[in-house]
Design a protein that fits this description.
7 strands; alpha+beta; single chain; Nucleoside Triphosphate Pyrophosphohydrolase; four-stranded mixed beta sheet; 156 residues
C-alpha cells in the first residue's frame, strides 16, 4: 500500500507598495533558510484562502495592513524553491502603516524594483520583473508553459 499522494506546497507572496515610498516595494531579509532578501509571504494554513494568507503573512512579517489590489500571477516552477515544490499565488497590495521586521523577517527595506543588483531568493527577481511590467502596462504575469517532456526547472 502506498502512502498519501505527494502534492506541492501552497504559498502566498505579496508585492507591497506604499504611498510614503513611491516607486519602491517592500522586501524582507529572511530569518530562516534559505537566507536572503525576499518578498513578504509564506505558506497557506489549512482552512485559509490564498488571499487571507497574503494579508496575514504581510502583517506578521512587516507589521503592515495591506489591501490586495491584483493577483499578479501564479508561480509554479518545481525548482523555484530549494525546500521543495512550492506553488505561490503572488498579489500586488497597497500597504498602510509603518513597516517593521517581525516573525520570520530579520529586517525589511524599501527596494527600487528596477535595482537588478539586489539579489533575491527564490524566483522573486522574476516576480519583480513581472511587477514592473504590470505597473507600466496593467498586464499580469505571462503564462510560462513547460515544454513537453521538460523536467523540474525546465520550460519556456
Amino acid at each position: 500500500m502506498s502512502g498519501p499522494p505527494q502534492t506541492p506546497l501552497l504559498a502566498a507572496d505579496v508585492v507591497i507598495h506604499h504611498p510614503a515610498h513611491p516607486g519602491r516595494v517592500l522586501v524582507i531579509e529572511r530569518r530562516n533558510p534559505p537566507h536572503g532578501w525576499a518578498l513578504p509571504g509564506g505558506f497557506v494554513d489549512v482552512g485559509e484562502s490564498v488571499e487571507q494568507a497574503a494579508v496575514r503573512e504581510a502583517l506578521e512579517e512587516t507589521g503592515l495592513q495591506v489591501t490586495l489590489e491584483a493577483l499578479l500571477g501564479v508561480y509554479s516552477d518545481p525548482a523555484r524553491d530549494p525546500r521543495g515544490h512550492t506553488v505561490s499565488a503572488v498579489f500586488v497590495a497597497r500597504g498602510a502603516g509603518e513597516a517593521r521586521a517581525a516573525d520570520d523577517a530579520a529586517d525589511c527595506a524599501w527596494l527600487d524594483p528596477d535595482d537588478q543588483g539586489q539579489p533575491l531568493v527564490f524566483d522573486h527577481r522574476r516576480i519583480l520583473d513581472d511587477y514592473l511590467r504590470y505597473r507600466l502596462t496593467g498586464e499580469t504575469a505571462p503564462l510560462r508553459l513547460m515544454s513537453p517532456g521538460a523536467g523540474p526547472g525546465g520550460g519556456t
